[in-house]
Amino acid sequence: MAARPEIVELDAVRRARADPNPAPIPTTPSALTTVYLRRRDALAAFIRRRTGCDQAAQDLTQEVWVRVAALGDQAAPVNPEAFLQRIAGNLALDWLRRRRFRSAFVASDVDPALAADPAPEADRALHARRAVDYLAEVIDELPPKRRQAFLLYRGHGMTMKQVAAQLGISEKTVEHQVAKALVHCRHRLAEAGLWP
Asked: Please, what are the domains in the chain?
């Protein structure tokens, strides 16, 4: 009985990760995937050193995989390790640039969403104003405890744990209340044509 292709591929991935001195790998898309899987931890460490952020390292390492997977059946580069390192470096640099851009606006109290379009069209501004006014009404429809949990979490930027401590309820209850509030708000905004 022949092994299923996905099992054979998984075995190859395990062998590639376990072998500290692998033989040269042919340059095919599956070879690029194998190199990625073998070097994933090193790529994450490289990105972490560049960005100084563990979460960014995890996210950007995943983005490297997305880029590799998007290549599909295209021929892999001659040096797949250098190719992956270049992708990781470029993603880290882009992340740092976005962070610096956002930091400049936070320091100057300018909303980055408005910076790209200094004079939004009148109908967009009117639509946004209507949505905000209607959202305030929709939030007022929520039961008092749900509204309070929702506003503390989304409006005041508190963590679920902080909200739970302030309200004297469990974090799970806070999660439940916030999720229900979000569903209610989205549903009501969609009914009014204010939600995509």
From this structure: 5-107 (1.10.1740.10), 119-191 (1.10.10.10)
